[in-house]
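Example S7 (structure tokens).
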């Protein structure tokens, strides 16, 4: 048999070349290292993109206190003074953690940014919690400045302002979870912005006035707002003898709302990522 024929027969018997082996995907990163990475990335982004807005939020809260200084009873023991300072302080948390986070996730969904995160080997909870934590942390300078300025303006004690260490993250978690849900479930980014603005306006209108001045239906709406309990906790610390059991209870409500709110935000992220 000719060599050419033998070679042809050998090629036929060998069959087609085997397919290349599939390249394995990168292993999934555990939750806490992924959360730390997302948190650092989001915090760096927020410092660049959101710093002017933080200045606006702080200026707005200080301006509200200056305006209310000439309207409400300015005595150090009055509930009006306590409500104005506490409400204006927590308003910054609502502005950033609720309003800006709703806008961020709304734009992320509209521009296809969720596809980028979906390709990363990180759990969905890390994306949501990292962004929420970064935005909540971003409020710290403004809340401190507002609380100190308001305390001096209304002659309130500065002794217990350390409670902001608990008020900011707990109320921020609840509001950030709500803001992320609004941004991820809104069909358009404009609606996410609108919902975030309405939520921040509710925190403003219902937070800077004492509950006893409000009619029944409005007071009920105030009780439904998570930031209310952060305001109540901070207000209590301005009293000559704070009721620490009430402070812990209010902060417990913030934590109790924050956990399901962040869980709902994680579910909304998965839902939006699958549909994007």
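Recovered sequence:
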């Amino acid at each position: 048999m000719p060599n050419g024929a033998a070679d042809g027969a050998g090629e036929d018997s060998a069959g087609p070349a085997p397919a290349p082996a599939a390249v394995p995907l990168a292993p999934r990163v555990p939750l806490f290292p992924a959360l730390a990475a997302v948190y650092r990335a989001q915090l760096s982004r927020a410092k660049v993109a959101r710093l002017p807005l933080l200045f606006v939020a702080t200026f707005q809260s200080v301006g509200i206190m200056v305006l209310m200084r000439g309207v409400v009873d300015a005595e150090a023991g009055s509930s009006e003074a306590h409500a104005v300072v506490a409400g204006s302080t927590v308003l910054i948390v609502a502005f950033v953690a609720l309003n800006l986070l709703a806008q961020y996730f709304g734009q992320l969904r509209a521009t296809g940014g969720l596809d980028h995160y979906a390709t990363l080997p990180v759990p969905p909870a890390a994306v949501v919690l990292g962004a929420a934590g970064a935005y909540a942390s971003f409020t710290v300078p403004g809340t401190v400045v507002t609380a100190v300025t308001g305390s001096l303006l209304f002659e309130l004690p500065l002794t217990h302002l350390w409670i902001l260490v608990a008020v900011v993250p707990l109320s921020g978690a609840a509001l950030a979870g709500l803001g992320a849900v609004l941004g991820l479930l809104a069909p358009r980014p404009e609606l996410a912005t609108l919902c975030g603005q309405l939520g921040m306006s509710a925190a403003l209108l219902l937070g800077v006035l004492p509950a006893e001045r409000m009619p029944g239906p409005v007071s009920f709406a105030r009780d439904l707002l998570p930031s209310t309990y952060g305001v109540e906790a901070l207000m209590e610390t301005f009293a000559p003898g704070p009721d620490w059991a009430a402070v812990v209870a209010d902060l417990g409500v913030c934590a109790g709302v924050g956990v399901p709110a962040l869980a709902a935000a994680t579910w909304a992220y998965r839902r939006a990522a699958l549909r994007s």
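Notes on this example. The chain has a mean pLDDT of 82.
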